[in-house]
Amino acid sequence: MKSLKELILSSGISPEKEKEFIKSIRKIKIKKGTLLQMKGDVNNKSYFVCSGMLRSYTIDAKGKEHVFMFAPEGWIIGDFQTYNNEIPTELFIDALEDSEIEVIDSKNLQEVDDLPQESLVKQVNLLSKRVGVLQNRILMLMSATALERYQEFLKTYPNISQRVPQKLIASYLGITPEALSKIRRQMVK
Q1: CA 181 → CA 141, 147, 165, 176, 177, distances in Å?
Q2: What CA–CA distance (Å, rounded) separates 160 from 71?
Q3: In this structure, how many other beta carbons lie within 10 angstroms of the beta carbon of residue 172?
Q4: Contact indicator for 52, 101 with CB cutoff of 8 Å
Q5: E runs forming strands in 4-155
Q6: CA 157 – CA 155 distance, rounded (Å)
Q7: How far apart are CA 68 and CA 42, in angstroms?
Q8: How many CB atoms are located within 10 Å of the residue 177 CB?
Q9: Is-contact 28 21, C-beta < 8 A?
């Protein structure tokens, strides 16, 4: 999937709703380092990555960053806890690379209420897949070794390990950059 428009065109909604929805999508270009969302914002937007890469993260009381998710091309990122509830966000979202993104407001998504049954099943399957990735990540953080977590990272994000700084990958894995270097050396042997 290269754009939200492509997703909508494949969903089978009525032509009137399709036009209305497509008009609500804003396509923007942002520079590396651009902050799209800060903790505490009431932000009900999601970002579809056409090119580049975004990440979501939190900062603990000691000032340490903890990467929650990476979003390379074709991924959607947002703070889904606040998405429908209009409560302050927990996550920061920023650009790791110069990026072209499509911005959609959750209110616009809620207006698309005439999806055919097969499209709803398709959307539920996509959402289930994403939830499954997050569930697996939580289980890995609770019980897997650092090596196993890194191997799972490589399966989940096969094309980004060379695009993301090692310290951010280590943060995502819940380990130090030095521990990640050691794991990478072990894997080469």
Answers
A1: 18, 11, 12, 9, 6
A2: 10
A3: 24
A4: yes
A5: 26-30, 35-37, 45-51, 54-59, 65-71, 76-78, 92-95, 99-105
A6: 6
A7: 19
A8: 14
A9: no
Q: How many CA atoms lie within 13 A of 187 on its CB side?
A: 13
What is the residue extent of each domain of the chain?
4-113
- Reported pTM: 0.81
Superfamily of domain 4-113: Jelly Rolls (2.60.120.10)
Contact 92, 38 (CB under 8 A): yes
Strands 45-51 and 99-105: antiparallel
Rounded to whole angstroms, how far apart are CA atoms 101 and 48? 5
Spell out the per-residue pLDDT of the chain, length 189, in tens: 577 767 666 666 667 777 777 777 889 999 999 999 999 988 778 898 999 999 999 999 999 999 999 999 988 888 877 766 778 888 999 999 999 999 987 666 555 555 555 554 555 556 666 667 777 788 888 889 999 999 999 998 998 999 999 999 999 999 999 999 999 999 888
Per cent of the chain over pLDDT 90 is 45
CB 161 within 8 A of CB 73: no
Q: Torsion angle, CA of 41/75/20/117, rounded to 10 degrees?
A: -120
Task: Give residue 107's identity as a one-letter amino acid code.
Answer: K
Dist. CA 25–CA 41, nearest whole Å: 20
The single-letter DSSP state of residue 89 is: -
